[in-house]
Give the backbone structure.
Amino acid sequence: MRPARNEPLARHALAFVLAGGRGSRLLELTDRRAKPAVYFGGKSRIIDFALSNAVNSGIRRIAVATQYKAHSLIRHLHRAWNIMRPIRNESFDILPASQRVSEGLWYQGTADAVYQNLDIIEGYDPKYFVVLGGDHVYKMDYELMLQQHVEQKADVTVGCIEVPRSEASGFGVMDADEYDVIRSFVEKPEDHPRCPANPPRRLPAWASMSSRRNFC
């Protein structure tokens, strides 16, 4: 189904939120709950940023993959985000790790969390598939990203941030050409490609917005 003219692309998207990581760098804060369930600013949780971004961007079909100590997270999702209406083609589903490949195999990472739920994802039949980290604090309109994705006729669009080259070894870094086309993706490299749009003296790097998250 093709979107109607002037209809937001986000209405045809599924947001798949990866929310199974512990976040070991938070130490005792994640002893009892997953990092996306850690409190932020009172009653909010870290995952609320990704979910708010999705809803405010116009995405009305959301799936959240959980794994590590997920009770607190699932309880929060049920209480705070049970707002979708199936009659409007809206949905909000929680996808706990369920050993879908074999009895001894849980989610082995971010890509595997998507892979193990491919049949569920295909059941949604989304025109656009937006993969989000559930443990990031930021504000973003995904509709703008989808519009650029379509205009550029891209196969995949990756959200990036500029970081100093001295910090790039902690990220997954993009090597892109002058047209912003990604040529390669290097995980935590020692020698970092710089942003092609910036002069050599600055030498920033393009880092994946999701590359500092550990899912398992």
